[in-house]
Amino acid sequence: MSLRRLLTNVAVLLAVAAMVIAGFWQLHRLSERRDRNSTITDRSELPVVEVQSLVESASGFDVGNDIEFRPVRAVGFYQAEDEVLIRNRTYQGSAGYWVLTPLRLRTGDIVAVNRGWIPHAAGTGTAPAEFAPATGEVQVVGLVRATVTAEGLQRSDPSSGVLAEMARPDLARLSQQLEGALLPVYVQLQAQTPSSGDLPVPVPPPDLGEGSHLAYAVQWFVFASIALVGYPLILRRLGRPGDPDQEAKVG
């Protein structure tokens, strides 16, 4: 066997191995997605409880991972002056912001409420007056969501000053500019009494679809099978290894 033929064989085997690995990786991602969907479904079907009975302000900010997507109720007064916009959020393909508004509970603690999405044109560092929260006592029902911090190469928000916009709902950063104890989770609003009108638009519940992981896995396994079956047929057509006449033609 010529060196060229040997290197080709090795390259094909490596390509097949990479395809198989990619297929199993997609199956792993599918399993993770199904586990997450099951967790969301199980937690979101639990009874609605008062948010302050589920989590305390003294809890660590990682507590949200254990109770995320639980349905909760919060009653209190919005602190419009402490509202921040979470930039780079989309709704039905349109760019905009999430409106994150602190809600002071009857206990004195504060919980951040994601009141929903507003279009990008409406945001000028702060939400316009027409999107201001209710001034009286409100009752909010929604899902518990965990704090989000910068990961990998993402840039964190400035560590000092009062921010009118943030890149993500980072509750530890938000707490720095609030007077009072902030709960280490935020509420993704689903319903409010009294109603807040058409805008902000409540953020939709998490997507429970399985994505394209299974289809991608099948594709990778099909590609690997084609290579495993097709390449030997090509070799056979070109001639068996060691045939001097054929080696002279293809080597």
3D architecture notes:
The protein is of the alpha/beta class and 251 residues long. The radius of gyration is 27 Å and the shape is elongated. It contains 6 helices and 8 strands. It has helices at residues 3-44, 51-54, 64-67, 171-175, 213-238, 244-250, and strands spanning 49-50, 71-78, 84-91, 94-105, 110-119, 138-146, 165-166, 182-193.
SSE layout and pairings?
Elements (H helix, E strand, L loop, with lengths): L2 H42 L4 E2 H4 L9 H4 L3 E8 L5 E8 L2 E12 L4 E10 L18 E9 L18 E2 L4 H5 L6 E12 L19 H26 L5 H7 L1
Parallel strand pairs: 1-2, 3-7, 5-8
Antiparallel strand pairs: 2-4, 2-6, 3-4, 4-5, 6-8
Helix pairs in contact: 1-5
Q: Main sheet: which strands, in order across?
A: 2-4-5-8-6
Main β-sheet description: 5 strands, mixed, barrel
Instruction: Tell me the distance between the termini.
Output: 8 Å
Number of extended strands: 8
Mean pLDDT value: 89
Please trace the helix and strand order, writing H or E for each element. HEHHEEEEEEHEHH
Helix content: 25-40%
Poorly predicted sequence stretches spanning 5 or more consecutive residues: none
* Coarse morphology: elongated
Describe this protein with a few key phrases.
five-stranded mixed barrel, single chain, 251 residues, alpha/beta
Q: In summary, what is this structure?
A:
With 251 residues, this protein is of the alpha/beta class. The protein contains 6 helices and 8 strands; from the N terminus they run H-E-H-H-E-E-E-E-E-E-H-E-H-H.
